[in-house]
Design brief:
Elements: H1 4-9, H2 11-21, H3 27-63, H4 69-101, E1 121-126, H5 139-146, H6 151-157, H7 167-186, E2 191-192, E3 198-200, H8 201-207, E4 218-220, E5 225-227, H9 232-236, E6 242-244, E7 250-259, E8 278-288, H10 293-310, E9 315-319, E10 331-339, E11 344-353, H11 357-362, E12 364-367, E13 373-374, E14 377-385, H12 388-396, E15 404-405, E16 419-420
Parallel strand pairs: 2-7, 6-12
Antiparallel strand pairs: 1-9, 3-5, 4-5, 7-8, 8-14, 9-10, 10-11, 11-14, 12-13, 15-16
């Protein structure tokens, strides 16, 4: 949600920002409804002052034993007009806020202007993609020979895009999740949260999934509940409709499955684990003082990077352009891993600063150093997402005999197992 005062005072800049995002924002309608609301409130306030004056006059006349019937009739008429103007104000406010809910966040000044992913900027890389003396296999081929997952039976029991992990594959998933949670809680200062895997529409609106992304959500018919698309939703909404009492910054991390319909994704990569409707992810969420949020964003990216560095996986960091950012983000970095079997870079993390956009929508407040209530800035980052992490790991560490060496960081979580070998 945007600060309407900011739109009033910086209308031209706001128009440019929306144009840079490629968004069609109904700014004129928003300002029109805002003006109707303000005008109705002004009329109502003037009538209330008039009513107060008449009320005093009635009191004076009654004290002197004079007739007040005419003034009292006038008071009732004023009351009806006040009710009418108050109703107009409420109606205009509801229309204005409904329009605002569909308007994306305003990009930060440091975000490059661009229409799509072609406008993204590579800001750094780490590691060197591995060169093979043999033709590297895809994770699908490796998974078949290692018996790590079963796509055919998963599709039969649920449908395409819902993976099933077996044996060492299931253990490797669990090992990666535990490794990441331990890193973020023990070394990066996050408090672990295990939230619900479903949220109501109010929570979805709070983080910006609704109404914009409704078609991508799995809705539970008959209930005001959605399967969460990311742990960002329940973790951020932890403070919804509250004034935060704990000192900022506050850091939470948590694991959840994530559910996404990926509406409109037909024709994109759907084979194997590249694009699925259910996947596991460790999320990092922070609530911070506004003046610190962009420094915090940089450190958040570092926290995600460290996961990949400890696993020895080459990555690159992209600063997303205005046209490729998510609806709620003011600035966003994506982290991509190199997957040799795909011969492609795969996104495994998005780290975003939402400024006060989500806090306003979810009515999350805190007390600033002056003791006044204000909106904190919220940030989140994948720390990191599976199963693309698993894709890159399997394809990077594969050997010529079809086995896969495991990075040392995972050995303690795999019961000392160092290598996955084909199952005969």
């Amino acid at each position: 949600m945007h600060d309407i005062k900011r739109i009033r005072e910086e209308t031209d800049a706001f128009r440019v920002a929306m144009r840079n995002r490629g968004a069609t924002a109904p700014i004129d309608e928003i300002l029109e409804q805002d003006q109707l609301r303000r005008r109705a409130l002004t009329e109502s306030e003037a009538l209330k002052n008039e009513r107060n004056g008449v009320s005093k006059e009635i009191g004076r006349l009654k004290k002197n034993g004079e007739d007040t019937s005419g003034l009292q009739a006038g008071m009732r008429a004023i009351g009806d007009r006040i009710d009418a103007f108050d109703g107009q104000a409420r109606d205009a406010e509801a229309k204005r806020d409904a329009l605002l809910l569909a308007v994306p966040n305003q990009p930060h000044a440091s975000v490059p202007v661009g229409a799509d992913a072609a406008g993204n900027r590579i800001v750094r890389t780490w590691g060197t993609p591995k060169l093979f003396a043999f033709e590297p296999k895809s994770h699908v081929q490796l998974g078949d020979s290692l018996r790590l997952f079963d796509f055919e039976r998963a599709a039969r029991m649920t449908g395409a895009g819902f993976p099933l992990f077996l044996g060492a594959g299931a253990r490797l998933q669990r090992a990666l999740l535990q490794f990441m949670l331990d890193l973020h809680t023990q070394e990066h200062g996050y408090t672990e949260m295990s939230p619900p895997f479903v949220c109501n529409s109010g929570s979805m609106r709070g983080t910006g999934q609704l109404p914009k992304l409704a078609e991508d959500m799995y809705h539970i018919p008959g209930d005001d509940l959605y399967l969460i698309p990311t742990a960002e939703v329940p973790i951020t909404n932890y403070y919804r409709d509250e004034i935060i009492r704990d000192p900022l910054p506050i850091r939470f991390t948590g694991y959840t499955p994530c559910f996404r319909r990926e509406a409109g994704a037909a024709g994109r990569e759907t084979r194997g684990l590249i694009r699925v409707h259910q996947f596991d992810k460790v999320e990092m969420v922070q609530f911070v003082e506004p003046e610190t949020s962009y420094a915090v964003l940089e450190s958040l990216v570092v926290h995600a990077q460290e996961v990949l560095e400890r696993l020895g996986l080459p990555y690159r960091v992209l600063l997303l352009c205005t046209g490729d950012m998510s609806f709620a983000a003011a600035k966003c970095y994506d982290i991509e891993l190199w997957a040799p079997g795909q011969n492609a870079w795969l996104e495994v993390s998005s780290c975003s600063n939402f400024e006060d956009f989500q806090a306003r929508r979810a009515s999350i407040r805190y007390r600033n150093p002056d003791g006044k209530t204000a909106f904190p800035h919220t940030l989140n980052g994948s720390g990191v997402a599976l199963p693309r992490l698993l894709v890159a790991l399997l394809e990077t560490y594969q050997q010529a005999d079809g086995s896969v060496d495991l990075p040392e960081a995972l050995w303690p979580y795999m019961g000392g197992l160092h290598r996955l070998v084909p199952v005969s």
